[in-house]
Amino acid sequence: MPTAGPGPSRRLGLVDEEEGLGRVLTAPNVITLVRLLCIPVFLWLLFGLHRQTAAALLLAVLGTTDWIDGYVARRYHQVSTLGKILDPAADRILVGTAVIAVIVHGAVPLWFGLATIVREALVSVMVLLLAALGAARINVLWVGKAGTFGLMFAYPGFLISYGTASWQGPFRVAAWVCGAVGLTLAWIAAAGYVAPARDALRSGRSARRTAAAKSATEKSPA
To answer: Which CATH number fits the domain that encloses residue 78?
Structure first.
């Protein structure tokens, strides 16, 4: 007996989900935008008002809320194409800005900051290059998100522990633990993107060839 196809409600759900990908004004996108708008506030606190502790606390909040936009998108079915691009882009911008700012402030060793920046730059260039070559979209690896999460704990720790007060010692130790784990995971994720990138490139090229062949067939005379 042949298997029954999906019912109308199931087909409708799939259509609604696909149509929803084009939405722009969604709760997760607003959350991501708010996080981006807080970056100038962080820089103002650190370099404008010289409030090192306040800047570190804001940076920690921005880092620990990294998961909220993705959770809201999945929990309330508000996943969108813009969100899939905006969320990782916000992570890259936030990490890059935090790293450079903390380096300039002198609160982190230069070699550690450069190791973080180089990794972020490589991943960003790879994403842009794949997009230019028409590759299919690559899902973010959980190990990369974990690495980013660790680094976003580490850099506020480096910042708040920058000084000679005795209470800053435990924060410095915690920053190094989170930083070492986060940076290691981040580089593991960077290496882990190589195989999916090849597959995405092949998939993108195959989809373009299929679309071109279909278009040529439709245009050919009967």
So the answer is: 1.20.120
Residue range 40-90, pLDDT digits in tens: 999 999 999 999 999 999 999 888 777 777 777 778 777 777 767 777 778
d(CA 165, CA 171): 11
What CA–CA distance (Å, rounded) separates 221 from 29?
46
pLDDT digit string, tens, across residues 28-39: 788 888 888 999
- List the domain range (segments joined by +) for residue 66: 12-208
Q: Kindly report the pTM of this predicted structure.
A: 0.74
Domain assignment present for residue 3? The answer is: no
Residue type, 139: N
Residue 68 in domain: yes
Q: How far apart are CA 91 and CA 122, in angstroms?
A: 14
7 lies in some domain:
no
Spatial separation of the C-alpha atoms in residues 212 and 109, rounded to whole Å: 52
Cα–Cα distance, 86 to 66 (Å, whole number)? 12
Whether 5 maps to a domain, the answer reads no
